[in-house]
Amino acid sequence: MTKTILERLKTLLLNEYNIDVGLIKTDAPIQSLGLDSLDMVDFFYAIEKEFKIKLPTQNLDLKSVQDLIALVERTVKEQTPGQPLNPKTE
Amino acid sequence: MNRVVISGVGVVSPLGNSGPEFFDHLIAGKSGVSRFPDDFAPRLGIRIAARCAFNPEEHFPRNIARKLDPVSQFALVAAEQAVQDARLELAEEEKRRSGVYVGTSVGGIKALFDSHIQLLVENATRLPPLSIPMAMNNAPVSHISARFGLKGACLTYSTACSSSAVAIGEAFRLIQHGYADVMLAGGSEASLEYGLLMAWESLGTLAPEASDPAASCRPFSKDRSGFVLGEGAAMVVLESRDRALRRGARILGEVIGYSTTAEAGHITKPSEAGMAAAMQAALDNAGITADSIGYINAHGTATLVNDVTETRAIKQVFGAKAYAIPVSSTKAMHGHLLGAAGALELIASVLSLQHQILPPTINLAVPDPECDLDYVPGQARKVSGLTTVMSNSFAFGGTNAVLIVRADR
């Protein structure tokens, strides 16, 4: 079993914000995560810790959940090329 | 002018996390002072403090607790208790005329220190975004306002050790003059952090650890050597007496006098004249004479300077009557809560009034000829006919505050 980026984001949301987005689809709008603007900044920080990356903070045009997944994937490949994106679950 | 009463109290303290538990322990002469664990703050020399037994997860879901500095956690829990104790319910239209004043000395200092550790020790390239809203001094007020929907005046007072006495006094005036009907007021402090403890140690006002940590702080005793730092929060519900009577609230006492005056002098050293002026101004504000006061909860920090100066100031204001008024310092038991001290000690005074029993000054073993008042040494004292109490708060920076509460009549 491997964990997708989406699953890792969902785990973060559940653990840090007590938000269960259930079977959210990747084309869902980013707002459907249920985070206000302050939470979103904080969520980005949590993502940075989880994926050991540094995300840009400006000029982000994230419309859908897929945009966020793509941003994380792109940043991981740029900044920590050796890191497995879909680590094995225990 | 409106009369203003206290209808509920809430306490998070080294002597327990409720008003009744706190007061029971005060009356039992129990100390909340203990040693830090050996692995905490390795370079700290004075390794004692009065800490709260407080588990945030008993009070908040984990995802909420992690967004709150302890100073806000303490304040929210104390406010919640005070509201429940007062059986306070606010209609929507009343919330615009209700607010909250909180005093704190250093606010969310843990959030700030934690981010500094990440920056300087862990070489972080980004700091937690919530550091700012967690650390800001007005976070406790903001969270309490949001929790109870209070939309009137919501302000933070920071005048060091008198912060929460000022918060309560200013809230009292606000209701008295008709700008609000209900106020939550008090203080919160959560500053037992390595960096601050080391700084306090340098300043030289902390009591060295006695062989029994509980005996370290010895107010008014000849062998006194300073205070022990504490933490916690204390909040009261203040409301206009008319409103309290209309809803059949239990009234714990009426706030009848408040003063805040400044030393306009030394940054840390209080003066006899300044302390006396503060007490006299509170008496004048209450429209009573010194004869009416039946108990004084002293600032009583157990520093060499404070206790003798406060004793002289009491004698200056009360004259020969000073010797007949019981004066105790409860700081030896709950520690010095800094920004929350004034509110906690006011609650001690109000509960003394309610139960007609005075908390003792513990650890007063060696008489000091210069401290020759009745400090209720060692053991609590039952009294009868106690009607009016005074609580003193004198602060670094020179902002003094005195509150006077009378049994309702």
Detail the topology: elements first, then pairings:
The complex is a heterodimer of chains A (90) and B (409).
Chain A lengths: L4 H13 L19 H15 L13 H15 L11
Chain B lengths: L3 E9 L6 H9 L5 E3 L12 E3 L11 H4 L4 H16 L12 E6 L5 H12 L10 H5 L3 H10 L5 E4 L5 H14 L5 E8 L4 H10 L28 E9 H6 L6 E10 L9 H15 L8 E3 L6 H15 L8 E2 L2 H4 L6 H15 L1 E2 L22 E2 L5 E6 L5 E8 L3
Parallel strand pairs in B: 4-5, 4-6, 9-10, 9-13
Antiparallel strand pairs in B: 1-7, 1-8, 2-3, 6-7, 8-14, 11-12, 13-14
Helix pairs in contact in B: 1-13, 3-6, 7-13, 10-11
Molecular structure report:
The complex is a heterodimer of chains A (90) and B (409). Chain A has 90 residues and is mostly helical. Chain A contains 3 helices and no strands. In chain A, helix 1 packs across helix 2 (37-51). Chain A starts with a helix and ends in an 11-residue tail after the last helix. Chain B is α/β, with parallel strands linked by helices and 409 residues long. Chain B folds into 2 domains: 4-246, Peroxisomal Thiolase, Chain A, domain 1 (3-Layer(aba) Sandwich); 258-406, Peroxisomal Thiolase, Chain A, domain 1 (3-Layer(aba) Sandwich), CATH 3.40.47.10. In chain B, helix 1 packs across helix 13 (341-355), helix 3 runs parallel beside helix 6 and helix 10 crosses helix 11 (304-318). Chain B starts with a strand and ends with a strand. The mean pLDDT of chain B is 97. The A-B interface holds A 15-18, 38, 41-42, 44-45, 48, 54 and B 61-63, 66-67, 125-126, 128-130, 133.
Question: Which labels suit this protein?
Answer:
heterodimer; A: 90 residues; mainly alpha; 3 helices; 48% helix; B: 409 residues; alpha/beta; Peroxisomal Thiolase, Chain A, domain 1; 2 domains; two-stranded antiparallel sheet; globular
